[in-house]
Amino acid sequence: MCGIVGLFLKDRALEPQLGSMLSEMLISLSDRGPDSAGIAIYGTPSGNEAKITIQSANPERDFRNLDADIAKAIGAPVSVAVKSTHAVVRTAPAKIDAVREAIQALRPDIRIMGAGDVVEIYKEVGLPETVVDRFDVRSMTGTHGIGHTRMATESAVTTMGAHPFSTGADQCLVHNGSLSNHNNVRRELIREGMKFETENDTEVAAAYLSSQMAHGKNLGEALEGTLSDLDGFFTFVVGTKNGFGVVRDPIACKPAVMAETNQYVAFGSEYRALTKLPGIDNARVWEPEPATVYFWEH
Amino acid sequence: MPAINVSKALDQSHASRVFDLAEMPLRGLNQALHDLTPGSNETAWEVLNPKGSHSVAVGVDQPVTIDVRGSVGYYCGGMNDGSAITVHGSAGPGVGENMMSGSITVKGDASQYAGATGRGGLLVIEGNASSRCGISMKGIDIVVHGNIGHMSAFMAQSGNLVVLGDAGDALGDSIYEARLFVRGKAGSLGADCIAKEMRPEHLALLQDLLDRAGVTGVKAAEFTRYGSARTLYNFNIDNADAY
After folding, report:
1. ipTM of the complex
2. Coil, strand or helix: which one is B182?
């Protein structure tokens, strides 16, 4: 099964509530997948900093003095905000690659969840409510976000196997379904120079989109490509720095419901996920068509 | 002890029995419906705040009316045997799955596989139905005021599917003896599904279905009938290479 949600705000007044709205949406779908859960939140752009979300199975050891150690290695200031097993490292945008290299050299057990100007990604084994509480997602503000609760079918139940998957700056993806040609596509993307952290099929879909966008396609065009290049069952919900997209495979057996008002565009695997949103009773609610790309940009 | 207001108590015995799913669990509703016995006076039921709940009013086997005020999730009215359910909202996947008799009316849209495997009764979707509407239907009548999605009536065995709008791709793939009436266009026809002549008995059958579904201003003659070419019924040795 799996449950996926997405929320793209049009009304800036709702931004302080993004984390709590998205959390409630995801928690309502807990029985679609109890294995692990994750959320990506796109914060308000500040213009002068970039962020890397990192994770460690031993946070007390790995995050201690990490800010000072990275600063010393790269010769520039960084900040590290720890949230349970995750931490967000902030630095100047020009230093982002240096910070990434320094983390890998200084703390080889740290895993990088994602990076970009605005995105923060939190994912762990456990129920959505546990994950949301652990990372205090409800208090997070932002412009848009996506979430996933997982019932694993084809790779291990681990933190790294949880969604969202991020394979490019400020890009991430959640997936309900399973891909059948992911090994082939992964090999092709590795040849292009893409790097993979897991054996997971969804990571391949994320990397495919990152590759397409790196070749100059916009989000809509990249999503269009999944219909011919990826084989299997999928409903994808995707976030970029300023965009939000949805696509379903042509068979479309994985469920999907969308709602749009003047204040937001929302996606849920089921209508249950949308019932607490403001103004839902008067929203335009529809089932996205198979093999049809939907996307919105700020 | 407060005095009992007899006239009020009598009124209430004839009023709807109201279940607010914001206040009580779904199992309470379904158990109360299953506890109904023939001849019960509790013939009118109302369900508030369904908010996408799964399995609302499944397996009801008494001729009661059930008004669901809002949208439901998976399998609303599944296995219905005699009750008249109205969903004042939209329905999730599998509304009326395996219905035996009675009726289900959805005022909004229905998600995939509406009326799947249904054996009897009438399912009316006043909005659109998505993919696989009437898949493997076995005697149910389905009337959709809007459009239906792809692979509808896949392996449909008997019963009638009426669509006032358009049908998606692969309509009636591998169909047996169900009748499909489409007023708009079909995206494409599935294997062994063909357009068929509309004879007087089909016009009469369709008109009766339209009347029972509350459809007005639409003539039976505006529809095209689709059904089985019956070329898949028997093994054809010339197809052996395909397996």
Report:
1. 0.91
2. strand
| Closest by Cβ to B131, choosing from A271, A274, A290 | A290
- According to DSSP, the residues that pair with B238 across neighbouring strands are none
Can you tell me which residue has the tokens 């002890």?
Answer: B1
Residues of A assigned a catalytic role: 2
Contacts of B115 (CB under 8 A, 6+ apart): B95, B96, B97, B99, B123, B133, B134, B137, B140, B142
Residue B7 pLDDT class (50, 70, 90 cuts): very low
Per-residue tokens: B28: 């309470």
Q: How far is B70 from chain A (nearest CA, A)?
A: 9
Stretch(es) of chain A classified as CATH 3.60.20.10: 3-44+139-297
Query: Which of B112, B128, B147, B169 to probe by mutation at the A interface, max A CB count within 10 Å?
Result: B112
pLDDT, tens digit, 9 for 90 and up, residues B67-82: 999 999 999 999 999 9
Contacts of A271 in chain B (CB under 8 A): 51-52, 71, 73, 90, 92
Would you call A290 and B111 a contact, using CB atoms and an 8 Å cutoff?
no
- Give the burial string for B151-189 (b: 16+ CB within 10 Å, else e): bbbbbbbebbbbbbbbbbbbbbbbbbebbbbbbbebbeb
Query: Encoding tokens for residue B155?
Result: 């392996």
Give residue-wise pLDDT tens across range A8-67.
999 999 999 999 999 999 999 999 999 999 999 999 887 789 999 999 999 999 999 999
- The class that CATH gives domain A46-117 is alpha beta
Distances from the Cα of B142 to the Cαs of A214, A216, B103, B105, B192, in angstroms?
Answer: 48, 47, 10, 10, 21
A273: chain B residues, CB-CB within 8 Å: 52
pLDDT tens by residue, B185-196: 999 999 999 999
Considering the domain A3-44+139-297 in this protein, what is its CATH number? 3.60.20.10
